[in-house]
Predict the 3D structure of the following.
Amino acid sequence: MDSVEERTPELRTLQQKVEYMVEKTFPGQKVSGRVFADLVKERGGSLSHSYFSNILAGKVTQPSEDILKALGLGFGVDWRFFKEESEVVDDVVAGLQFLAKRRTGEISGVAGRGLDEDGLPPELLQFALSLLEDARGRQDASDGGGVPGEPEG
């Protein structure tokens, strides 16, 4: 396969997290601070376009919890993703990777029974991604494409 498996990016700073979310939430689009601020407002939050632009420029590094909540609203993710020591970063990244594979057809469908309004738990998303990678490795091995678990040269 020509594509390199997507690795979890290093998302330590607020700027890195927001840039990553812009890229994943609005693929191939240029999203201005004004457009994002309007989106946050439509979803019941408040964020100025200039403040959002300053976050993207790396000028804001420790915003208030209200700003983090506004970012969460705008991107449709748990606001804690944007905290400095966030436990939800891996969960959000796994969910976005899952959705990307769904869009490309690598995952054709998932049926869940008894789900609440939060949808699939992050652990299930990570498990589904691991099953997909295992199946891809087996297919590559049977096609003579390499040994599962070994990186391609």
Q: What stands out?
A: Confidence is low (pLDDT under 50) at residues 1-5, 146-153. Helices lie at 14-25, 33-42, 49-56, 65-75, 89-104, 122-142. The first helix runs from residue 14 to 25.
